[in-house]
């Protein structure tokens, strides 16, 4: 089964996702420049949000795996001298040549780990330490002798964020995970021009004399204001396969899809939020359920950019009209087998696709989506 999520979010002046020059990210689409939020930025904001963490199934993305294992070894009562050597050896194993980043005890590849994986690595290292009995013998161990670590790549439960967003690793001690969720870069429904805020800071202790007048510092920050279209899809079959070793798989999945919809709606990227406080909720949320896995983004609704000109310009309303017209067009032209379609638009409820179930409350819509999973036999 395929779950597809579509949202429109309208932001005031913000700089949510910066490029290498510090300016808001952009792209060209339909021949004009658009505002853009990268999928990497969106996924990180979702994965680290409080809403997602309510699931209590999330990992840690880090290059400091040896340090985390070292801390766990200390908790397991392993002697400090052994812990120090184990951390160095783990760093060498992870980095293959045994030398890279050894001083910092970090790995060359950044990887997301579940707590279960950290625990299994720690237990395998502890078993090797107990088997050897002394540091000299332990130090003579080659990376190939840590065969018990390989068990960490098989039959181990992973967290919801790893199951959703996937993981690519180069180590034989951890398993690759195919992402169950595809996430598009969010783009503005309209053309956008970058603006710049010139600001000054005044020293509170400066006197009134001419010599002391002027700013304590000056600076500038780039920003834009966009109505973004967001799109993501979740393959529930891949999700179930990824979570096959979880004891509470069915319960987790039944909570995960509604939680992900809420997370997308309630979470905004953190870039420059202390400066702009661009915290908004979506003006439109549409969730579709398909048993035939034919994914479809409706981004081409905005190939011709929405115009902000007119006697009563309203980017959100105009964007919603373009969106629903495009949805209706795709329905009639391709007749895709959409089993369920939930639609929520609190400000403009009169604008909606011809074929949809409308909801006045966001919570009612997410509950309906959870029911789809039950009907599909996932619980």
Can you characterise this structure?
The chain has 379 residues and is an alpha+beta fold. It contains 12 helices and 13 strands. Strands 1, 2, 3, 6, 7, 10, 11, 12 and 13 form a 9-stranded mixed β-sheet that branches. A two-stranded antiparallel sheet has the order 4-5. Helix 3 packs antiparallel against helix 4 and helix 9 runs antiparallel to helix 12. The longest helix has 20 residues, at 315-334. It starts with a strand and ends with a helix.
Oligomer description: single chain
Distance between the termini: 14 Å
Roughly what percent helix? 25-40%
Mean pLDDT: 88
Give the biggest sheet. Answer: 9 strands, mixed
Low-pLDDT stretches: none
Q: Which overall shape is indicated by the principal axes computed on the Cα atoms? A: flat
Give me the count of strands: 13
State the helix count: 12
Write down the Rg: 25 Å
State the secondary-structure class.
alpha+beta
SSE inventory with pairings:
Blueprint: E1 2-10, E2 26-29, E3 32-37, H1 39-47, H2 50-53, E4 60-62, H3 65-75, H4 80-94, E5 111-113, H5 115-132, H6 135-139, H7 160-165, E6 181-183, E7 186-188, E8 195-201, E9 217-223, E10 227-235, H8 236-242, H9 249-266, H10 273-276, E11 284-290, H11 315-334, E12 340-344, E13 357-359, H12 362-375
Parallel strand pairs: 12-13
Antiparallel strand pairs: 1-10, 1-11, 2-3, 3-7, 4-5, 6-10, 7-10, 8-9, 11-12
Helix pairs in contact: 3-4, 3-5, 9-12
């Amino acid at each position: 089964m395929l779950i597809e999520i579509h949202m429109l979010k309208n932001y005031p002046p913000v700089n949510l996702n910066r490029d290498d020059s510090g300016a808001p990210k952009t792209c060209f689409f339909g021949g004009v420049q658009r505002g853009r939020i990268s999928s990497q930025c969106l996924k990180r904001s979702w994965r680290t949000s409080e809403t997602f963490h309510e699931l209590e199934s999330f990992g840690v993305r880090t290059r400091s795996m040896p340090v985390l294992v070292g801390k766990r070894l200390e908790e397991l009562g392993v002697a400090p001298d052994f812990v120090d050597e184990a951390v160095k050896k783990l760093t060498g194993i992870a980095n293959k040549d045994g030398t890279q980043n050894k001083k910092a005890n970090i790995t060359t590849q950044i990887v997301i780990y579940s707590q279960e994986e950290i625990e299994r690595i720690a237990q395998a290292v502890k078993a090797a330490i107990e088997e050897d009995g002394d540091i000299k013998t332990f130090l003579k161990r080659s990376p190939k002798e840590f065969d018990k670590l390989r068990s960490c790549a098989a039959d181990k439960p992973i967290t919801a964020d790893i199951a959703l967003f996937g993981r690519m690793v180069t180590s034989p001690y951890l398993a690759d995970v195919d992402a169950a969720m595809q996430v598009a870069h969010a783009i503005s429904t309209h053309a956008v021009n970058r603006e710049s805020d010139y600001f000054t800071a005044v020293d509170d202790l400066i006197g009134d004399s001419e010599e002391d007048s002027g700013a304590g510092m000056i600076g500038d920050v780039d920003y834009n204001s966009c109505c973004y279209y967001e799109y993501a899809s979740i393959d529930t079959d891949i999700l179930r396969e990824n979570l096959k070793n979880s004891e509470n798989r069915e319960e987790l999945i039944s909570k995960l899809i509604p939680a992900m919809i809420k997370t997308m709606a309630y979470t905004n990227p953190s870039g420059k939020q202390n400066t702009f406080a661009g915290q908004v909720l979506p003006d439109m949320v549409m969730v579709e359920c398909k048993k035939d896995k034919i994914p479809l983004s409706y981004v081409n609704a905005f190939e011709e950019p929405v115009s902000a000109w007119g006697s009563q310009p309203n980017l959100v309303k105009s964007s919603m009209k373009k969106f629903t017209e495009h949805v209706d067009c795709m329905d009639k032209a391709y007749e895709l087998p959409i089993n369920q379609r939930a639609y929520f638009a609190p400000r403009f409820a009169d604008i909606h696709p011809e074929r949809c179930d409308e909801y006045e409350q966001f919570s009612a819509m997410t509950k309906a989506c959870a029911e789809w999973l039950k009907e599909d036999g996932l619980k």
